[in-house]
Amino acid sequence: MSKTLLDVRSLSKSYATGRGRLDLFRELSFEVAEGEMVAIVGESGAGKSSLLHLLAALDKPDAGEVYLDTTRVDQLNLREQAEFRNRQIGYVWQFHYLLPEFTAEENVAMPLLARGTGRAEAISAARRWLTEVELGDRFTHRTGELSGGEQQRVSLARALVTQPRLLFADEPTGDLDNRTADVVFSLIQRLHKAHGLTSVLVTHNLEFAARCDRILRLRNGGLSQTPVTV
Ligand SMILES: Nc1ncnc2c1ncn2[C@@H]1O[C@H](COP(=O)(O)OP(=O)(O)OP(=O)(O)O)[C@@H](O)[C@H]1O
Entry's InterPro entries (predicted)? Predict the structure, then answer.
């Protein structure tokens, strides 16, 4: 049995909105083991992105606890959250949020530069990861000039260049056509296996979810867990 890396205990989240309080989920508990690839699915508005934000120290829960190994993620202050995200987390967004005027290698090097790594070393690591995502011929292209699939591969390289303990991806293929989505998902799956990553992905694509080790389904404020049997 693999070691638990992510431990979520009785997590609750609501938002104050103009029309009163929106209870998203109550007392969610689950674990993710080291090396697992877990899909989070659920209808639009079920709270998948909000849950990922809590796990990645981008937001705080109303109640409950999130542990990444021995770190109590939900209790980090703002400075600690930023440091935690830079050191421990790789995050891929649906809309890649690359800087279009910067080259692919500069975008990928940025998390390393932000933590004080020297430029030559950061660019060299960026090139290694761009090669891993099969963009070895695009180092010095501006990301604004790359295709949607290529941009998402750059953002995957940026998420992994820091060698994070956990990879989160929020609809990483949601903005791509079917064929490109399959290329990007297959790449995530290949890198997950090759580098022994632990990954949590939000997806609407049930075919991709079924290719993960486990599916967590958010519904009506609760969670059901489905072992993948296909
Ligand atoms: N900061 C916020 N303040 C108020 N309401 C919010 C906030 N963020 C999200 N919500 C609301 O919470 C609900 C869940 O949003 P969330 O983005 O987590 O859902 P989701 O399952 O990821 O949806 P989708 O699949 O459409 O991306 C939505 O109704 C959304 O409008």
Answer: AAA+_ATPase, ABC_transporter-like_ATP-bd, ABC_transporter-like_CS, ABC_transpr_LolD-like, MacB-like_ATP-bd, P-loop_NTPase
